[in-house]
Design goal:
The chain has ten helices and no strands. It has one domain: Ferritin, core subunit, four-helix bundle (Ferritin, Up-down Bundle). By secondary structure, the protein is mostly helical.
Length: about 260
């Protein structure tokens, strides 16, 4: 618990998470998520949305779509995690995954409250969100985690762009909070993928990573089409977005190969 508390404190102060080396167990992740929920950045809601008309046009629809995407209940993947726990004996994993889902719901609540403050209506459905929800529901645990990890990697780029796209004090602080959480979400999902693939032959692992790369590439294309206005407002041209996305994926793939 002391180690996890140190990790959380480092994240809150903006320090590197490099001190947390090695593979974290599911029980470690339960401790981490529990501590992280108590160490949140203060959001200055009294400042109001403070969006200019140009900023509103650039980011409003994009935030609506992202807010909707964060609201998933995760029932299918939690059921898959329960079956995995029975087979593997990793009884803490479903609890850790449930805490992860709760953290995503906290992100949805922050974005939703911002939309309400800015008097921007919330969405109840959207075509790209529907596609990825169906994909997660059709998948087993490994593919569902691949879909989640893809979303987390892209979210790191999106919230960096959104932070730069407006001068809204509230929105920028929300982005800072979510970016802190996403760094560990990427680690949580990528470590579990490594555990699931552990023991497979080199060729099988390479094939799995290649398929994961194809999923990531297709998602990036859909994401750019849906969010290019907000990304551009945050200084991400198509070329810069593609380069950053490639680097994010290569980092995760590289860590997997190291393990």
């Amino acid at each position: 618990m002391a180690q996890i508390d140190e990790i959380a404190m480092q994240r809150v102060t903006g320090s590197s998470i490099a001190a947390a080396r090695g593979l974290m167990s599911s029980r470690d992740w339960c401790d981490y998520f529990q501590v992280n929920a108590q160490r949140l950045l203060p959001i200055p809601w009294e400042a109001g949305s403070d969006l200019t008309e140009a900023e509103r046009k650039a980011v409003a629809h994009s935030i609506q779509v992202f807010q909707l995407g964060e609201t998933g209940e995760g029932n299918h993947i939690l059921r898959c995690a329960g079956g995995y726990a029975e087979r593997s004996g990793d009884v803490y994993y479903p609890a850790a995954l449930r805490m992860f889902v709760e953290e995503e719901h906290r992100h949805a609540a922050l974005l939703g409250r911002f939309l309400d403050t800015a008097e921007i209506p919330r969405l109840t459905k959207q075509w790209s969100d529907g596609i990825f929800r169906k994909l997660r529901h059709l998948a087993g645990l490994e593919l569902a985690i691949c879909v989640l990890l893809t979303a987390e990697l892209i979210a790191k780029i999106y919230y960096a762009a959104l932070h730069a796209a407006t001068g809204s004090t509230i929105l920028r602080r929300i982005c800072e909070q979510i970016l802190r959480d996403e760094a560990m979400h990427v680690r949580f999902q990528s470590e579990r993928l490594w555990i699931l693939r552990r023991g497979r032959g080199k060729f099988a692992c390479q094939c799995a990573m290649a398929l994961q790369g194809c999923l990531f590439l297709m998602t990036c294309v859909v994401f750019w089409i849906s969010h290019r206005r907000a990304l551009s407002a945050g200084g991400f041209s198509l070329r810069r977005f593609a380069r950053r996305a490639r680097n994010e994926f290569r980092y995760v793939a590289g860590r997997s190969r190291e393990r």
